[in-house]
């Protein structure tokens, strides 16, 4: 078998998927020994279940942060998960984060106004731009049908926009959906090599 393409990407949010919030009951906390009690570290970080790390690392994809935590996700979140530093998607300047803007000057303002009018999430354009046509999963707690429709119209590759319930965070059911999509997507990019049928390997349609 010959792999003919880069693996899919997985864009991962922090608040909601990894740090659950909004439930009426107390959340369990996980002590990792990484925090200095006098450091003033965000107490919500203790809600991150370190078991997510091995499960995320085992997925057949490349992990990318898509979060307002930006590089702080590598400093504060990744060590709790046992993950190495990951790439970080830059976010629009209007979100309060320094990163990739939707455009320059008047064109960028027009895009932003259009996004607000139709209800497009401000991460959607940067995620699609970062993917550059590669298949991707986006895991977030704020995804809507508007985002799914925009991605379908503007992204040439396969994509799964998976919304997580922020009250629960990532669950086994969420992983099952993502893992199933990745298996199908990766299988579609693998074909027998030239020795198998006397022809060149190719991407599936």
Report a brief summary of the structure.
This protein is an alpha/beta fold and 205 residues long. It is 34% helix and 11% strand.
Key words describing this protein structure:
disordered C terminus; 205 residues; four-stranded parallel sheet; globular; 11% strand; 6 strands; alpha/beta
Shape: globular
Number of helices: 7
Which H/E pattern describes the elements? EEHEHHHEHEHEH
What structural class is derived from the secondary structure elements? alpha/beta
Q: Level of helix content?
A: 25-40%
The averaged pLDDT comes out at 85
Count every beta strand, where a strand is a DSSP E run of 2 or more residues.
6
Could you walk me through the main structural features you see in this protein, from its secondary elements to its overall organization?
The structure is a single chain. The protein is of the alpha/beta class and 205 residues long. The protein has helices at residues 52-57, 72-81, 105-118, 124-131, 145-154, 172-188, 194-197, and strands at 2-3, 9-12, 62-65, 136-140, 159-163, 190-191. Helices cover 34% and strands 11% of the residues. A 4-stranded parallel β-sheet has the order 3-2-4-5, with helices on both faces. Strands 1-6 form a two-stranded antiparallel ribbon. Strand 4, helix 5 and strand 5 form a beta-alpha-beta unit. It is globular.
């Amino acid at each position: 078998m010959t792999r003919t393409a880069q693996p899919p990407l997985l864009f991962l949010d922090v608040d909601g998927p990894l740090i659950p919030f909004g439930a009426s009951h107390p959340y369990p906390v996980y002590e990792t020994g990484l925090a200095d009690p006098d450091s003033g570290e965000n107490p919500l970080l203790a809600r991150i279940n370190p078991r997510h790390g091995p499960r995320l690392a085992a997925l057949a994809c490349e992990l990318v942060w898509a979060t307002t935590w930006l590089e702080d996700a590598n400093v504060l979140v990744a060590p709790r998960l046992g993950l190495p530093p990951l790439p970080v998607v830059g976010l629009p300047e209007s979100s309060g984060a320094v990163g990739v803007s939707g455009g320059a000057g008047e064109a960028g303002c027009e895009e932003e106004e259009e996004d607000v009018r139709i209800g497009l999430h401000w991460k959607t354009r940067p995620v699609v731009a970062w993917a550059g046509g590669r298949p991707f999963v986006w895991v977030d707690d704020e995804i809507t049908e508007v985002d799914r429709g925009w991605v379908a119209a503007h992204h040439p590759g396969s994509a799964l926009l998976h919304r997580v319930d922020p009250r629960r965070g990532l669950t086994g059911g969420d992983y099952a959906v993502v893992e199933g999509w990745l298996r199908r997507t990766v299988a579609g990019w693998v074909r027998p090599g030239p020795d198998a049928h006397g022809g060149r390997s190719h991407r599936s349609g």
